[in-house]
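Dig into these lines:

——
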Amino acid sequence: MNTTRTIPAASSRLNAQLFNIITVIALLLSLTALLLGKLLASQKVGFLPLVLSLPPVMIWLGASIFVYASIAHHPNPRTVHYNKWAGYRYYGVMGSLVVIGPMIYGLLGGLQGVMLVLGFAVAIIVPWAIYDIVRAAREPWQDITIEVEQRQP
């Protein structure tokens, strides 16, 4: 027996923006922690900025897989489109930082290298993500009605 279910337009819009919103929060939180750690660190605790800045990015890197996968099969194709490009951006930049990050860190060394690598990620991802968040907010979203198959026990 099939039943119909309505997915509100607001839900589709939020799902289209969710990956970008959390990415911006995680990167800005990480950058803030790095700068705060730089202010608080003394010569004896020089690794403090790095220790403070990595958890938000690493936690979001793991959690983003679940968010991406949960939105990837949304019934609204525009929601899937926004999610797909947010994932391409985030995973592309983070993957490229694995390759070029050590080179930048090797050239500058220490905290300056870490700040440049994280700054590179923030400078690429955050403006583009904010642009997509605003673009998704301005788009005219429609309620979607889908058929759900109910299983008999």
Summary: Residues 9-40 form the longest helix (32 residues). The helical segments are 9-40, 48-72, 77-108, 110-138. The chain is about 75% helix and 10% strand. The radius of gyration is 20 Å.
